Amino acid sequence: MKDLFGQAIYDYHFKNSPENIYTETSISEEDEMDVSYLFREFNEMPIIEQKAITLSKGKILDIGCGAGSHSLELQNKLQQDVTAIDISKKAIVTCIARGIKQTEVCNILDLNENTQYDTILLLMNGTGIFGTINQIPIYLNKLNKILLPNGQILIDSSDIIYMFDEDEDGGKWIPGTNYYGELTFKLKYKNEVEEEFPWLYLDYNTLQNAAIANGFKCELVLEGEHYDYLAKLTL
User: Fold this and answer.
1) For residue 149, is pLDDT > 80?
2) What residues pair up with 221 in beta bridges, in sequence order?
3) Are the C-beta atoms of residues 190 and 3 closer than 8 Å to each other?
4) Are 55 and 154 in contact (CB under 8 A)?
């Protein structure tokens, strides 16, 4: 991939003429995002992210850290032992420049299983990295291996059923045969277009069923203001 998301983060931090990011999914029109949002302070974060941070403890892994705002809060304000990882090299360069002490450019599936964690964070629609329903067991199996016996996975997502039109019977008309939260995601930055990639939104019940089927307990921690939620997975 071109790593346009990482480039936007890098440009903003290093004052390299940053521009807004444009995103689009298979069920939604193009939307504009100010890159500064990725650099938000704790009091600017959604309540779900604030709750996840306050629940984090022990040795922490921040997966898909982006600009590192969650890791910085944990490391600097709460004095926690946190490692930030992302597949984006430029995002990690930015995290290092912002002062995050432990970082790695890494896909979750390639993580060393010799290191285990008390808390694993998957925020900003953390279920997105699963890609599709069929890949959930692959990722949960990996998370199982890097989670300490009494550890926790804090993960958020949204039930996007609200985005679909109602049919004549008051139900939802959902095109296609796949699970409605399986989307393809497009991103544009500075007139460049990233390769499309799969991105998964999960309703809580589907996440809970998948968790139980793969050796986890699943608890609904908090519901947000717009169909979003925070869940906790334990072994």
Assistant:
1) yes
2) none
3) no
4) yes
Q: CB of 230 within 8 A of CB of 54? A: no
User: Could you tell me if 9 and 94 are in contact, meaning their C-beta atoms sit under 8 angstroms apart?
Assistant: yes
Find out whether 5 and 189 touch, Cβ atoms under 8 Å: yes
Helix, strand, coil percent content, the chain, rounded in steps of 5? 35, 30, 35
8 Å CB contact between 122 and 201:
no
Higher pLDDT, 16 or 164: 16
SS3 16: coil
Nearest alpha-carbon partner for 217 in 142, 158, 151, 159: 151
pLDDT tens digit string along 118-127? 999 999 999 9
**71 CA to centre of own chain:** 13
CA 168 to chain centre: 35
Q: Output Rg (C-alpha) for the chain, integer angstroms.
A: 18
* Residue 178: half-sphere exposure toward Cβ, Cα within 13 Å: 15
- Supply angle C-alpha 191, 201, 229, rounded to 5: 115
State whether residue 113 is helix, strand or coil.
coil
pLDDT, mean of residues 205-226: 96
Full-prediction pTM beyond 0.90? Answer: yes
Dig out the tokens for 156 from the structure: 């958020």
Hey, is 122 helix, strand or coil?
A: strand
Cα 218 to chain centroid, rounded: 17
CB 45 within 8 A of CB 69: yes
What is the set of domains in the chain, with CATH numbers?
4-234 (3.40.50.150)
Instruction: With a cut of 90, say whether residue 132 has pLDDT above it.
Output: yes
